[in-house]
Amino acid sequence: EAFVPRTVSILTPREKYYAPVKNLYGGGQQQHLAASSSSGTLAEIPTSPIPGMKPGTSGLRKKVEIWQGIDDEIKEKYYVENFIQSLLDTAKANNKGEIPKTLIVAGDGRYFNDEAIQIICRVLAGNGVENIWVPRSGIMSTPAVSAAIRTREGGSADGGIILTASHNPGGPGEDFGIKYNENYGQPAGEEFTDALYERSLEISSFKTVQGSPDININAPAGTTFSLSPTSAVTIIDPFTEYVKVLKESFNFDEICEFAKHPDFSILFDGMHGAGGPFAQRILIEELGFPKSSLMRCDPRPDFGGCHPDPNLTYAAELVKKMGLKSDGSADESAASTAPTLGASNDGDGDRNLIAGAGCFVTPSDSLAMICDNWKAIPHFEKAGGLKGVARSMPSSAALDIVAESLDIPLFITPTGWKFFGNLMGSKEQFDKRDYTPFLCGEESFGTGTDHIREKDGLWAMLAWISILIDANKDTAEGQPLIQVKDVVMNHWVKYGRHFYCRYDYEAVETDAANKMVDLIRDNYINGDLSALNEDPSGIKLVATEEFAYTDPVDGSVTSNQGLILFFRYANGDDARVIFRLSGTGSAGATIRMYLEKYEKEKERYGEAAPSILKSLADRAIALVQLQELTGRESPSVIT
Ligand SMILES: O=P([O-])(O)O[C@H]1O[C@H](COP(=O)(O)O)[C@@H](O)[C@H](O)[C@H]1O
Ligand SMILES: [Mg+2]
């Protein structure tokens, strides 16, 4: 049986897609074009199970050559087909034996995006998925997919298949990934991904269509392609639903007005990911900011060679332009001419980094500050205020203090956006919105609300613009604007500062990382702390915990979610260090060490977090023998 061969991507910028966004999409109006008629024939192709298809924190991420079937070791030519067939079988089993009727297939534009879309559409059609929606260009940010699954005109989708490895680099030798979001726009939970994995170890064939020509993903929105007599692909406008939910969440007229203020300027770094065209559409076309407000907003298959992770290390150019040094402290001379507000997205547009002129806002602080300023955000304001907030466990407790003072229920969840979704209202509880409006976020540069079921990079930027508008409502004409750094300092003065930073040790040998985890468990989680020797640093390990979570909505228990070490300084100050292995890598292990110390002394608020936390980091690194076990003298990233 001859199977349709795969083509190889050519690494070219997608200028064709990016530059004429407005004309291409005709302002969001969809044209309805005649369906093409040449459909293929249904086929069932024998295959064998491929080990290792266990999705991590957010989907399955592997080196692209593995997905392409050209990896030296895993020469399985049907890697994508096997994964998608396992996914569909799982979705079918979850849906009373019925195959989903409508699915979106979209990606972040990374290398192999377009080929994978073609393969997946064929497998979906082979399995009888009736309506397949593919965004024009094949590119959509993760938050935009979530919005479209939930609210697309003419009926919501049963789910979405998102082709992304998020913040991991793309291109030959780099990462590709696929994740599944369910019918309320939320990443599939662990029950689903575990079942998918089990299925992937059993399958013996996949269904597809043969002989149909490739879909033209650049065809105008509204074009349909018939893949089989029962399945068609419709090209959709990627922006419509997303623009709509953001317009409902914020006051666009007010932002448009403020955008004209001579002293107010923004800078958005799209990192050549999927968020770029959405920033162009929202910030430039809808809100009227000048084009110079964007950098790296043309999606590229290799993200222009950059690591599309918005943190102090990888968003170095933006960080510098915002008048910041790489440790997040102000570079005063550059800060005086920096834009008022800067933000950066990751590859699939769901993460955010927020900075003011000379002021880096840690994600945990940003979340707490958005919570404290909820009145500035129409989505919360219209509903009479927040009814629930949540943070991932490794995020700092800055949110907790605000939630307590505002008397809002707070949840502390494991790392992974899927855990927030249940709290906002799950499939069964779709209309039972006890905790919405809801605000949630993670230290890993994720912030979001119940406007969709994913974190949302652009949302965070609009939230901060709204906070600045609110902070300046009484600023007289000609007076200097209240800046991000003023908002931040006022917040610390009110609540205290949670000094926070994260060390990442990327590409550590898996065995070494596991040994370190075992050591922490044996010596500290289950060990006798009173037997520990006094350390000259005076930083004492006083308690430990391995984090486990019981979901308050469905009662499911998730264990082994991070090793927490609680410390006390000689002066009585409390601090916390957490060790966790990342669940989003594709090879080896990434050790994450999260450091946090609460400070009430105002005089110290101006200091850089990495220097305040250095002795705590040294103490923790020595205790867990990180250097001895991994051979790593310094982290790959401090953020
Ligand atoms: O990669 P993204 O942007 O989808 O983000 C994903 O990974 C993050 C970091 O995970 P880890 O520390 O395990 O690497 C999680 O916080 C997030 O909820 C998840 O959606
Ligand atoms: Mg992401």
**Which residue ranges are poorly predicted, with pLDDT under 50 across at least 5 consecutive positions?**
1-37
Bound molecules: 1,6-di-O-phosphono-alpha-D-glucopyranose, magnesium ion
In CATH, the topology of the largest domain is named Alpha-D-Glucose-1,6-Bisphosphate, Chain A, domain 3
Tally of individual helices: 22
CATH superfamily of the largest domain: Alpha-D-Glucose-1,6-Bisphosphate, subunit A, domain 3
Strands of the widest sheet, in order across it, are: 2-6-5-3-4-9-8
Let me know the largest β-sheet: 7 strands, mixed
Topology, number of strands: 26
Radius of gyration: 24 Å
How many domain regions? 3
Name the shape in a single word.
Answer: globular
Percent of residues in helices comes to 25-40%
Strand content of the residues, in percent? 15-25%
Structural class: alpha/beta
Going by CATH, the architecture of the largest domain would be: 3-Layer(aba) Sandwich
CATH class descriptor of the largest domain? Alpha Beta
Q: Tell me, rounded to a whole number, the average pLDDT.
A: 91
> Between the first and last Cα atoms, what is the distance in angstroms?
52 Å
